[in-house]
Amino acid sequence: MWATTAHEIGRRIWIAWREKGFNSSSTTSLHMCSPTRAALLSGRYWSRFGVTSAQNERVYPFETVTLPRALQASGYATALCGKWHLGSRGDWGPNRFGFDHSYGSLAGGVGPYLHQYKRGPFEETWHRNHTLLQEKGHVTDLITQEAVNWLGRRDARPFFLYVAYTGTHIPIDEPKRWLDLYPDIGDPTKRQYSAAVSHVDDGVGQILQTLERMGRARNTLVVFTSDNGALPTARNDDPQYSGEYPVGAAGGTNLPLRGQKGQVYEGGIRVPALAWWPGRLSPGVHAGPLHAVDWMPTLCSLIGYRTRQDLKWDGQNVWPWLTRSQPEPPRRLYWAGTGFRSAAVREGDWKLVVHRAPEARTELFNLARDPNEKQDLAVAEPDRVQRLQEVLAVLSAQDRDAQVSK
Q1: 162 with 151: CB under 8 angstroms?
Q2: Is 155 exposed, middle or buried (0-12, 13-18, 19+ CB in 10 A)?
Q3: Does residue 262 sit within a domain?
Q4: Does 14 have pLDDT greater than 80?
Q5: Contact yes or no for 360/378 (Cβ under 8 A)
Q6: Mean pLDDT score, 102-123
Q7: CA 131 → CA 125, 143, 148, 235, distances in Å?
C-alpha cells in the first residue's frame, strides 16, 4: 500500500509512528502534484513526459509500463483512491494505466463538499472507475471510506493501494470536530489548515487499523509521503473554485527551508516520508535523499518483477539503504522546474540551481553545510559550477530525446 498526503505530517503522529517502528526519511519530489505523481508511477523524471506543472492533459503514452501495470502483471490487485491529475478526461483516467479500481478526482484538488475542480472543462471530476458521480460527504472521509472498503474486499491476493488525499490542498473547509482540536489558533484559515492535517492523519490511521484487523499488517509495506512543499500564500477563497470558503491564506510553512511549492529550492521539493513494514524495517532515520522516481524500482525489486523491456528508469532501488544492508553512495538527482524555466541538479552534497527565466542566473549550494540554501557558492566554486552545468545539460537533453520519441 502507498499513502500520500499533504506536506505537513502532524508532529504528534510523526513522533508516535517513530516510536512504533517507522523508518523515517526526507524524500524529494517536485513543486507540484502532477509531476511528482508522473515520476512516482513511472520511475522516470516527470520531464521525460514534458510535465513540469499540474496537468489536465494526458501525461503518459497509453503503452507506458506504470507501477500499477507492473504490479498487475505480477498478480497484484490495484486501486487508486483520491487524486489522479495525469489526464483529467475519463478516457485518460487511472484504469487506462494499470489500476483495476479508481475513485476520486480525475483532475486536481477539489472543494471538500462539492467535489468540483476549478471552474472550466474539468470542473465535474468526481468519479468511480471513470464514471462521474455525485456524492455527499467531506472529501477526506470519502477517500478514506473507499480505501477501507476496497481493502475489506481483498482475499489472499496481494494488493497495491495508492491513496492520494486532496487535503491540505485548497479550498479547505473542515468539520467542527477537527477545528475544535485547535482552539488557540486565532487565524481562521491557519486553523483550517491544522484541522485538515489532523483529518488526514485520522484517515491514514483508519487504513492502518484496517490492515491490522485483516491480519495483513505484517505483510504490507506502507509508505507515507507528499508531493510538494507548502505554498504559504495559497488563497483559500480562490475564485477559480465554486462555493464559499473561509477567507485568507491557508498554506503551510516550509521553514527553515528556502522556497515553496512551485520552486526547485528545498522548500519546494524536500518533504518528509515514513515507511513501515513490521519485522522488515527497523525504527530509525534515513538521512540521505530519496526521490519520487525511486519507488517504482524499489517496489518492483521487492516483488521480483522482471521485464525484457527497457523501462528507462531514472530511479534506483533504495531498499538496501532503508534496511541499512548497504551504505548509500553519493548520487545524482535532477529536477526540471515549471515550464523548464528553472532546473536543479544534485550530486552528493552539492546542488546547482539554474534559472533561465525571467532572468538567467546560477546558484550553487552545499546542502550538507547549508540545507536552507542561504549561501550561494557559485562565484567561489567556478569549476564545480561548470561540471554540474555539464551534468545538467546531459540530463536536459535526455528530456528532449524522450519527448521526441513519445
Answers
A1: no
A2: exposed
A3: yes
A4: no
A5: no
A6: 97
A7: 9, 16, 20, 30
Grid look-up 484504469 returns 95
Q: Which amino acid is at 366?
A: N
Integer Cα distance of 23 and 19 in angstroms? 10
Question: Which residue range(s) make up the domain with 373?
Answer: 341-404
Domains contained in the chain, number:
2
Find the CATH number of the domain harbouring 232.
3.40.720.10
Task: Say if 288 falls within a structural domain.
Answer: yes
Strand partners, 366: 350
User: Structure pTM?
Assistant: 0.92
Q: What is the 3-state secondary structure (H, E, C) of the chain?
A: CEEEECCCCCHHHHHHHHHCCCEEEEEECCCCHHHHHHHHCCCCCHHHHCCCCCECCCCCCCCCCCHHHHHHHCCCEEEEEEECCECCCHHHCHHHHCCCEEEEECCCCCCCCCCECCCCCCCECEEECCEECCCCCCHHHHHHHHHHHHHHCCCCCCEEEEEECCCCCCCCCCCHHHHCCCCCCCCHHHHHHHHHHHHHHHHHHHHHHHHHHHCCHHHCCEEEEECCCCCCCCECCCCCCCCCCCCCECCCCCCCCCCCCCCCCHHHHEEEEEEECCCCCCCEEEEEEEEHHHHHHHHHHHHCCCCCCCCCCCCCCCHHHHCCCCCCCCCEEEEECHHHCEEEEEECCEEEEEECCCCCEEEEEECCCCCCCCCCCCCCCHHHHHHHHHHHHHHHHHHHHHHHCC
pLDDT tens, 205-264? 999 999 999 999 999 999 999 999 999 999 999 999 999 999 999 999 999 999 999 899
Q: How far, in Å, CA of 305 to CA of 323, rounded?
A: 20
